[in-house]
Fold this protein.
Amino acid sequence: MDVNELKSQIVKYGQLLYEKDYIVATDGNLSVRLASDRVLITPTGFRKSELTPEDLIVVDFDGNVIEGHRKPSMEMWMHLWSYEVRPDINAIVHAHPAFVTAYSFQMPREYEPQLPEVRDYVGPLGFVPYRPAGSRELAEFVRDKAASHNVLILQKHGVVCLGKDLFDAFNLLERVEFEFKIKGLRALFK
């Protein structure tokens, strides 16, 4: 797939994240691996619902901007280091969906989904203890968990989904948010 099509996909999924209430304001970030030495990523401090292809940035694995006029996401290292430990993934979506984020406050451990279709498609969820957003420490924790999980719950922060492409990463996000919606509704009926 060429770079222009990947840029269009990031724009599309950025809008979907906002429309589905998986992000608010300037939160969240998306990226796609372009080659063994480059990644296309969203800018920092920018509403994902208003992205254009021209807003996206190409960085190398040293964090240098190769193309683009904006500053890359403050979570850039979380993306780059995850790609380094997972050559099988080509897209990452980081969002703050309400149900996943709410449960992240009380989940200091790995989590096995309860819904069979989520368990079968997603697998166990990795857990990353709280570290400040954009910090190298958070990026290191994410990298370590990304080596063995496709979905990571970030305590008090949100979720990171690693997929073979943006479609796959977004589907992981939707399935995990659905799992926690059902978990919340079940609690109401107890």
In short: The helical segments are 3-19, 76-85, 98-104, 116-122, 136-146, 166-188. The chain is about 40% helix and 20% strand.
